[in-house]
């Protein structure tokens, strides 16, 4: 099967050119002006922008968490991602404390195998680092193609590891050629503040926010950077939200340390005032939404090259699930739905409103995730030999985000009524048309597990 895409404007992280693309099978085999080639199908992309497929390196599908499961399955989640131009996601396996990493991999495979519509990979979350876990790290890097290891400095009593485990893990991951990623907030301090607020009868969603003040994230980010600097381990902070935490990363650059930073679309666009609403539980996530000044810091951080990735931390729960915490904020399952709208929101609010360039948009949404997580140039760009993961985008079409038309398995939208400018029209995944005019053409099972290469934390 061959496809010729004609008359588009191709945007990558470092170029912007009017050119055609020729695809044979799963790969791009030619990029150039006025290509004349016989193809099984020709797509006219006049007036459209052509982007590489988006990569969201932070999603939680069908994940057991806080007494329930996140509501998107691998099928509904990866399909919704495709509707939004995200052709690949990286999901999280959670080790059960007292059990092995391999047990956890088997459990996650049982839910994901043959169920994905789009491509996917896993980070391995290490929640119990010991002599046995240590022996498994090399196997994951060498044989499973899983080269990033997630840690939690919070969720005390469930997922959190202590600094002793963190240092041990960093030493081993460095040795094996992987990357340590972190949810960087001070779990002990948060645990204390949650208990204090509950004891005082302060139980509304606002106290979720007040139990995780900026200092909890700034302190943990600095500590994580220090430990990574000491061990020399490549390091990545997930879902960074605030000025204090970004300053810790900025300080680390003074000793020429390169701590990679991800923020998420919600921290750029919405703020903590939402927790005062009656339905504030919709935005209960960790870390919580912050202040307007933090949004400005994060946009600036993208342009300064400190914030390398914009992900979603997509972890949806239906309203009924959120109501598990109607009388106590600490029981509201943490997370919000965004997998479908990251690319359009970032383009509309970022590129259209002049906050970032269109090349920067591609860099943080497509290219850097591929580079950081060991998939470049197979993924994350448009070039000869790359997978034909391609978005055809109308930069002028306006539309409104609403739960009644989205494809995520959740009965509300965190962005209900937002008008965005720019629409994903067609999406290709490995040479097949995945989305065309609001219709998904692929079945579950097409999505492939992507084995990733070793990484060194330098991009
Ligand atoms: O609230 C969140 N972020 N839920 C998912 C788990 C995590 O901490 O990433
Ligand atoms: Zn987290
Ligand atoms: Zn997460």
Report on the architecture of this protein.
The protein has 459 residues and is of the alpha/beta class. Helix content is 31%, strand content 24%. The strands form three sheets. Strands 1, 2, 3, 4, 5, 16, 17, 18 and 19 form a nine-stranded mixed sheet that branches. Helix 3 packs parallel to helix 4 and helix 7 runs parallel beside helix 8. The model has no long low-confidence stretch (mean pLDDT 98). Bound molecules: N-(aminocarbonyl)-beta-alanine and zinc ion (ZN) (2 copies). N-(aminocarbonyl)-beta-alanine (URP) binds next to loops.
Judging from the principal axes of the Cα atoms, what is the shape?
globular
Number of beta strands: 19
Helix count from the secondary structure assignment: 13
Q: Poorly predicted ranges (pLDDT <50, ≥5 residues)?
A: none
Q: Major sheet: size, sense and barrel closure?
A: 9 strands, mixed
Helix-and-strand structural type: alpha/beta
Q: Cα distance, first to last residue? A: 34 Å
How much of the polypeptide forms β-strand, as a percent range?
Answer: 15-25%
Let me know the average pLDDT: 98
Can you give me a brief rundown of this structure?
This protein is of the alpha/beta class and 459 residues long. It has helices at residues 74-83, 101-112, 131-144, 163-176, 187-199, 206-210, 214-231, 243-253, 265-269, 292-303, 319-322, 342-351, 358-372, and strands at 2-11, 16-24, 27-32, 41-44, 49-52, 54-59, 64-65, 68-69, 86-94, 119-125, 148-152, 179-183, 235-237, 260-264, 307-311, 390-400, 419-429, 432-436, 439-440. The two termini are 34 Å apart.
């Amino acid at each position: 099967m061959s496809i010729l895409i004609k008359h588009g404007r191709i945007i990558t992280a470092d170029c912007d050119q009017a050119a055609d693309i020729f695809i044979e099978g799963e790969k791009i085999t030619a990029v150039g002006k006025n290509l004349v080639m016989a193809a099984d199908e020709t797509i006219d992309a006049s007036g459209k922008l052509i982007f590489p497929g988006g990569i969201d390196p932070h999603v939680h599908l069908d994940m057991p968490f806080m007494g329930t499961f996140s509501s998107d399955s691998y099928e509904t989640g990866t399909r919704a991602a495709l509707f939004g131009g995200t052709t690949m996601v990286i999901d999280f396996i959670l080790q059960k404390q007292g059990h092995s990493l391999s047990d956890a991999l088997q459990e996650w495979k049982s839910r994901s195998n043959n169920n994905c519509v789009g491509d996917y990979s896993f980070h391995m979350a290490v929640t119990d680092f010991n002599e046995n876990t240590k022996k498994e790290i090399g196997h994951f890097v060498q044989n499973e193609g899983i080269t990033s290891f997630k840690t939690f400095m919070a969720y005390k009593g469930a997922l959190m590891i202590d600094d002793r485990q963190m240092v041990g893990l960093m030493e081993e991951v460095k040795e094996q050629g992987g990357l340590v990623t972190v949810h960087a907030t001070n779990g002990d301090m948060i645990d204390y503040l949650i208990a204090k607020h509950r004891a005082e009868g302060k139980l509304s969603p606002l106290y979720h926010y007040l139990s995780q003040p900026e200092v909890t994230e700034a302190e943990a980010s600095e500590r994580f950077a220090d430990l990574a600097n000491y061990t020399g381990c490549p390091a990545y902070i997930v879902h960074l939200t605030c000025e204090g935490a970004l300053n810790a990363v900025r300080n680390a650059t003074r000793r020429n340390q390169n701590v990679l930073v991800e923020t998420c679309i919600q921290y750029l666009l919405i703020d903590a005032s939402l927790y005062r609403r009656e339905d504030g539980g919709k935005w209960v996530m960790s870390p919580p939404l912050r202040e307007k000044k933090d949004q400005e810091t994060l946009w600036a951080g993208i342009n300064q090259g400190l914030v390398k990735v914009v992900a979603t931390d997509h972890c949806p729960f239906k309203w009924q699930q959120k109501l598990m915490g109607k009388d106590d904020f600490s029981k509201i399952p943490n997370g919000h739905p965004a997998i479908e709208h990251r690319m359009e929101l970032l383009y509309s609010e970022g590129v259209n409103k002049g906050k970032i360039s269109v090349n920067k948009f591609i860099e943080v949404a497509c290219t850097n995730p591929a580079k950081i997580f060991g998939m470049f140039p197979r993924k994350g760009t448009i070039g000869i030999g790359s997978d034909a993961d391609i978005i055809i985008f109308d930069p002028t079409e306006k539309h409104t985000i609403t739960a009644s038309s989205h494809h995520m398995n959740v009965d509300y939208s965190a962005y209900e009524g937002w008008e965005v400018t720019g629409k994903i029209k067609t999406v290709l995944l490995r040479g097949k048309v995945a989305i065309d005019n609001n219709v998904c053409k692929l079945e579950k099972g097409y999505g492939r597990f992507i084995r990733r290469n070793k990484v060194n934390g330098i991009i």
